[in-house]
Structures are given as structure tokens and as C-alpha cells.
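pasting UNC93-like protein MFSD11 for the record, 449 residues
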Amino acid sequence: MSPEGKKLFNIIILGVSFMFIFTAFQSCGNIAQTVITNLNNTDFHGSGYTSMSIIYGVLSASNLISPSLVAIVGPQFSMVISGVFYSLYIAVFIQPATWAFYTASVLIGIAAAVLWTAQGNCLTENSDENTIGRNSGIFWALLQFSLIFGNLYIYLAWQGKTHISESDRRTVFIALTVISLVGTVLFFLIRKQEDTKAPGDDDSTNEILGESSSARNKMMRAVAAFKKSITLSFTKEMLLLSVTTAYTGLVLTFFSGVYGTCIGAVNSFGSEEKSLIGLSGIFIGVGEILGGGIFGLLSKKSRSGRNPVVMLGILVHFIAFYLIFFNMPNDAPIAPMEGTDQVAYMIPSKEVAMLCSFLLGLGDSCFNTQLLSILGFLYSEDSAPAFAIFKFVQSICAAVAYFYSNYFLLQWQLLIMVLVGFFGTITFFTVEWGAAAALAARGSDYSSI
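structre below
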């Protein structure tokens, strides 16, 4: 297999592995609060929102050390270990206990930081200036198939049910645990790249994350990775992109946990309210996959860079927020187990709810594919620290959003996303214009990014 073919193979395996793991985890996130609501009359007393807040809070803090951990263990084995912890978290729901639920939330927060740092390194190692956009799109599209498969199963399994029985819960979460383990095993198929580092190239990613038989060298690389993360955090480009990244964290919380809970709480949807959670996830996945395909795989045909894609993303999201505001009851995110009989400014419509799910996924793919692309382009030699900072900002904002989702009515959650999204779009534009100018100075074709 040619070197380019080997790199493309690695990107596909990376995407498929994440697809399996997040088929399980994202489906778990979509239904966690609904399942827990049905459990809170038992000895279990937990909150899906609180769990997710813990996960993303720990994830954000762990990103400060995740480049160092990846440097010591290696990116491939780091992803394998992280996948095991994802599977353990999902398995907790088979026989829930409050202490195990929150302990697993802490552990998966650490694992997620390591997983996404290693993923960013793997993506960058198998890409170059001309293929980073394509590879980001391939990875993102494969990853988002996870929303289709897991939620399709939930939709079919829970159709017509207004209460989730113990048998229903166990069947779903045993299946999701096995799926997560399959994705973890697939990481072993990723092939290592030959070391092409030029002599004296001390600042390259290979120097930071390269394997070494010397424990002392590995520790030196770990320290170097930590120092690089701190240094990059205060660069102008990273500070500007952090606003955009913060917005993706808020949106991640909304479509992966809050919106499904809202749909499941609307009594006007009748016996379909629980199965519609799964159908919503499917439509989010369709939007994500479509966006990843169009804006990633076809990126080389664009003559104007990343800004038009991000502009489309924010417009699509604003339309979705407007429709959700009119369609969903204001108390839906914090409704009790019995649901809510309130109506917003229109009678709740299943069709509008599913359209909004699609728009949420499409807009999210616009932002994430372009963020992955610009980070890989700007920080090709410092990929692990750069992606660690990206996940740090995204996850700490997701943690904050999951926390306030326990208390804020729907209208305030939507308003926060509108404001942060507006400013995040402007800051992304600023960085992209700078990247285009730098590329033009090198005599490269702007459309190649």
C-alpha cells in the first residue's frame, strides 16, 4: 500500500472506531436523563445533566495533562485505554448505582481528554496541508454515523412506550456496551507512520509524541507537551478560536442532551414522545453526515476557504433556535417525570421538531469540520497541544451548559447560544483571514485549505 493509501486507511479506521464508540456514548447521552427520570423512584438518585456536567468539567481540566499522557503511552494505545473507560461508563446503566454512576462520570472525563487529544494527533499525522480538509470531513462524516445507528435502535425499541421498564433499559445498554467495545478493538488496526522528522526538527509533533524506549525521553516529551499547551493557549489565533470553540461546546450540550429531553417531555406528542428522542438523534446524525460530506470531502472545490461554511452554519442554527423557541414549551428542559402539558407559541409539531434536529446537526458539522481543518492547518507541528486546548475550551463550556440546564428555561438557553454563536463566528472569520493571508504569502492556493 502506498504511503498516501496507508494514511487514508488510517483516517477511515479512525472514523469507524469513533463511530462505534460514539454510537454507544451519544445514544447513552440522548436517553440518559429520560432513563434516570424513570429510575428516581428507586434507590438510584442521580441526574443525567449533573453527570454530563461532571464529565465535561473533568474533561476540560484533564486536557491540561492529556498531551503529556499521550506522549508517554502513545496515541494508539491511549485511544484503546480510553475506549475501555467509555464502555465501562455505558455499562453502569445496566445495573445503576448512584456512586458508580458519578465515579464513572469522573473517569470518562479523563478518558475523553486523552481520546480526543490522541485523535487530533492521529488526524494530523495522516494529513498534510492539501488533505487536512478532506480528511477532517471523512472523519467527521464517519463519526456522525453514530447518531444514525444508535438512535434508530432506540426509536424502534421504544416506539409506543411512555415508560422505560428495567428490561428495556438493560437490553439497550448491554447492546451499547458491546458496540463501544467493538470500536475500541478497531483502534489496533491503525498503522503506525514512519518517522519522517528531519534532523534537528525539535518542535515537530513527532518529537513531542514520538515513541521512545527511554523512559527519560518520554518524560521529557511529556513535559515539553505540557509547556507547549500553555504557550499555545495564549496565542492570538487560539484565543480567537476559543470563542468559536466555546459555541460548539454549548451546542454540543443542547443537541446531545437537552433537546432530546425536551422532546421526551412534551405530552402533546402522545405515545410517541419517548421514541421521538431516537428519531431526533437520527435527524441530527443525517445533518452531521451531510455537512461532513459536503464541506469536508468537497472542500477542494471551494475557492473561498472556510468562512462561507461557518456563515452557513450560524444561519442554519439561528433558524433552528427560532423554530425551537416557537415549537417547544419553555419548561421542557426541566419538566418532571410526568412531562409538561404547556405549549409555546404554536401547538407542538413533530415535523418541526425533527426539522430542527436536522438543522442542529447540519450547523454543528459546519463549525466542527472547519475548526478541525483550521487547527490542523495552523498547528500541523503542534497538533496534540492544539487539539487538547480545543477540547479543553469546548468541554468546559459544555460542562457549564449541562449545569445550568438543570435550572434555566428553554428561552434563556437559546439566548445564550445565539449570543456566543454570533461572536464566535466573527472571531473565526478573523483567524481565517489571517490564515489566508499567510497562505498567499507562501504562494499556495487558498482553495487547498
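Residues 196-201, 444-449 have pLDDT under 50 and may be disordered.
The chain has two domains: 1-190, 229-437.
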